[in-house]
Design a protein that fits this description.
Elements: E1 6-12, H1 31-38, E2 41-43, H2 52-61, H3 84-90, E3 94-100, E4 114-119, E5 131-136, E6 139-144, H4 145-159, E7 166-171, H5 225-256, E8 262-268, H6 287-290, E9 294-297, E10 305-307, H7 317-325, H8 339-342, E11 353-357, E12 361-365, E13 369-374, E14 379-384, H9 444-465
Parallel strand pairs: 1-7, 1-8, 2-10, 3-4, 3-7
Antiparallel strand pairs: 2-9, 5-6, 8-9, 11-12, 12-13, 13-14
Length: about 475
């Protein structure tokens, strides 16, 4: 029996945190993830930069994207950082990578003893949708990416060593577009598409600085309701499809009798908008894009626990895994482990979290409020996530901001609702202010104080990250 637990780390591509049936989404079928959540703990970490390459770099390094060298596509991870597979290999683990890599170099040179069907690195030719071809065993193998990668994971599980612990890093390309699940999954939601997101908008209310990136051009402007529901139907189909095939992988652990010796982790690199806030892609800092689903299940993890309020980053996953595996994290890891949160010894890891996207957006939040700042516009949004988790009520909206010390002028109206002459002299209709005073849940002075405080948190976070934007 190995001295340390095995680790199966499954990372999806573009999966939102609200796409698991057992955790509140009644419209999606995810029996495998439901089973995993019932046996473990669910959290929602933040990805510092919600884009594939930097987000995956955070998981591998235990550092946020501003501290590991990779803030965008094509940027290499710092050479002196010890990656998760390197650290586990040095501790005696047999390490295996399957599927999407997307960081610089090749996983075979980054601590993995074996690699299989590495997308894009080992792919033969292009791909149509999720149909991919790899050269293998003197021939070619072609199929849907989810099935190709999970087939290989099943094969690895069937022969995984029992005399030493192992790591299997299974990186799917699902539910990334083009969303082409095979039948019968492709048709599963088409006759009755999922409802629009609670934060659906036909268009984003302002130019956030990156409105025409590739992802945003996957749907028309404005976003039609039927079109968005069609996208969601295909998106859900991809998730239910990969849920099925992940079930095949977990079943092998059960059949071999090693499930209790294996820490199983399910997560994603980042989320996706798919119509929320009038956006389609992940390239924004709203909750649906910057937060990820994370389920941990196995040795040392309590069952059936949900920790939505735990503030943590995806870069905190690596030290957490080391804690659960009985290892010290490498010296280059800067994340904070949260195994003690899983055990109920404290409620959260961090009091505040910061994030950023290119030079166009920055985020800072505490346990209740979240600030979004757009440097090129010098525009600020503030959301009370306790009362408004879908971020539909921007407390900085100008028309809501009557200063608390100012008396709203009276609005004199006739029975039909039209302005009538000012009763003071009867000479002129009253026109400057036709709206009655708006009574926000958070007073303007308090909003200003929260904004100032979170701007300070952001400035401090930017200093720590070496981020000079703004």
């Amino acid at each position: 029996m190995p001295a340390h637990p095995n680790l199966l780390l499954c990372i999806m591509d573009d999966q939102r945190a609200d796409t698991i049936h057992a955790l509140g989404n009644a419209r999606i079928a995810t029996p495998t993830l439901d089973r995993l959540a019932a046996a473990g703990c669910f959290l929602r970490p933040y990805t510092t930069v919600p884009v594939c390459t930097p987000a995956r770099g955070e998981v591998l390094t235990g550092r946020n994207a501003f501290r590991n060298g990779c803030r965008w596509f094509g940027e290499p991870l710092l050479a002196d950082i010890t990656l998760l597979p390197q650290h586990l290999a040095a501790a005696g683990y047999h390490t295996c990578h399957i599927g999407k890599w997307h960081n610089d170099g090749h996983p075979r040179d980054r601590g993995y003893h074996e690699t299989h069907r590495v997308f894009h690195n080992d792919q033969v030719g292009g791909h149509t949708g999720h149909s991919m071809t790899f050269r293998e065993d003197g021939g070619l193998v072609t199929g849907h990416s989810t099935e190709l990668f999970c087939d290989r994971a099943v094969e690895f599980m069937q022969r995984a060593p029992t005399d030493r612990p192992w790591l299997c890093y299974l990186a799917l390309h699902s539910p990334h577009d083009p969303r082409t699940a095979p039948e019968p999954w492709a048709s599963l939601y088409r006759d009755d598409p999922p409802p629009l997101p609670a934060s659906y908008l036909p268009e984003h209310p302002f130019d956030n600085g990156d409105m025409m990136i590739r992802d945003e051009r996957l749907a028309g402007f404005p976003r039609g309701q039927d079109e968005i529901r069609g996208h969601l139907a295909d998106y859900y189909a991809m998730i239910t499809h990969h849920d099925h095939h992940l079930g095949r992988v977990l079943d092998v652990l059960e059949r071999r009798g090693i499930r209790d010796d294996t820490l199983v982790v399910f997560t994603s690199d980042h989320g996706l908008a798919v119509g929320s806030h009038g956006l389609m892609g992940k390239e924004n800092l709203y909750e649906h894009s910057a937060r990820v689903p994370l389920i941990l299940s196995g040795p040392g993890v309590p069952a059936g626990k949900r920790l939505d309020d735990c503030l943590c980053g995806h870069y905190d996953l690596m030290p957490t895994l080391c804690e659960l595996l009985g290892l010290d994290p490498p010296a280059t890891c800067e994340g904070v482990g949260y195994a003690n949160v899983l055990r109920g010894e404290q409620p959260t890891v961090r009091q505040t979290v910061c994030a950023g996207y290119r030079d166009t957006m920055r985020m800072a939040r505490d346990g209740r409020f979240k600030l979004l700042w757009y440097p090129h516009l010098d525009r600020t949004q503030l959301f009370d996530l306790a009362a408004d988790p879908e971020e539909t009520n921007d407390l900085c909206t100008s028309w809501r901001r009557w200063p608390e010390t100012r008396t709203c002028p009276p609005v004199w109206t006739a029975a039909g609702g039209r302005p009538v002459p000012d009763p003071e002299d009867g000479s002129q209709p009253w026109v400057p202010h036709l709206n009655p005073r708006y009574e926000p849940a958070v007073a303007s002075e308090e909003v200003d104080a929260v904004v100032a405080r979170l701007r300070g948190v952001l400035a401090e976070g930017q200093g720590e990250m070496g981020d000079g934007v703004g």
